[in-house]
Amino acid sequence: MAEIHHFDHGWVTPAFSYLLSVLGSLLGLIGAVRLRSAHTGAEKGWWLVLSTLAIGATGIWTMHFVAMLGFEVVGSQVRYDVGLTAASVLIAIVAVGAGLAIALLGNGARNLRILVGGVLAGLGVAAMHYTGMAAMRLDGEIHYAGSRVTLSIVIAVVAATVALWLTLVVRKPAVIFISALVMGIAVNGMHFTGMSAMSVTEEQHFGAIKGASAGSLLVPIGVTVVFAILGMVYALMAAPSEEDRAASEFLKARIDARMAQQARQAAQQASSRGTLGNGNWTYRDRGQQ
């Protein structure tokens, strides 16, 4: 068996991958709060897309990619099939999006929606992980321990179900932040449990291994993720929150009430002047009597 290192760069990659998973979860949970308070279908669709990208692309897939930067098989180059790697991104986004749509926008009992969405999203996350692993090219044959693979899938389903439940209940900033920390632990736990199921039997290959190195993918993926995060943060900051909407509606109601009161007063004054001017007598007539 080949020697495998999961932390080739020390704690840099797992720490950074955890931060990314927390950041993605945080943005996704905030987006879910905005989705629950949205009034139109277009607004709900927008926040669903943003939450999906935040959790699925940033919190899960990018975390997976960064963690893999610390992966090494001693004595072998590690390359990645670009097509399968791209497919793993799409799987993560579609699975998380479907789970969020079922839980947040679906009909039926809430707990049933959470369960169905959690199972679907969790299986999708597991499929993303092992699709990404299938994209790996190296000097050897990859094997998996069935019990740990099963455990990683169970963790993915449970984590996704809890995450969907959180998207439906959290509202306060402190609770959202704590929930993001917990989601980050769950996502990383699933990833490294799945990685621990892996072993490699060395095989001698002649010629260069086809595929892209993790380093060559780092720049385009890193730039994309940075701009995506900045865009999501801007969208969240620019959009009015539920408190902003409530304050705006309260102010509008006060203005409408004031204008209505002024209109009534003006109507009463006009009515009084009309009565005095069109009656059978006036103040002048009264003085002459």
From TrEMBL:
Q: Which residues cross the membrane?
A: 15-35, 47-71, 83-105, 112-130, 150-168, 175-197, 217-237
Q: Which residues form the MHYT domain?
A: 9-201
**InterPro entries in UniProt:** MHYT_dom
> Region Disordered: start and end of each range?
264-289
The record's listing under PROSITE patterns reads: MHYT
GO CC entries: membrane
Per UniProt, the ranges with Low complexity bias are 264-273
Q: Which domain of life does this protein belong to?
A: Bacteria
Keywords assigned by UniProt?
Membrane, Transmembrane, Transmembrane helix
Name by which UniProt lists this protein? Membrane protein
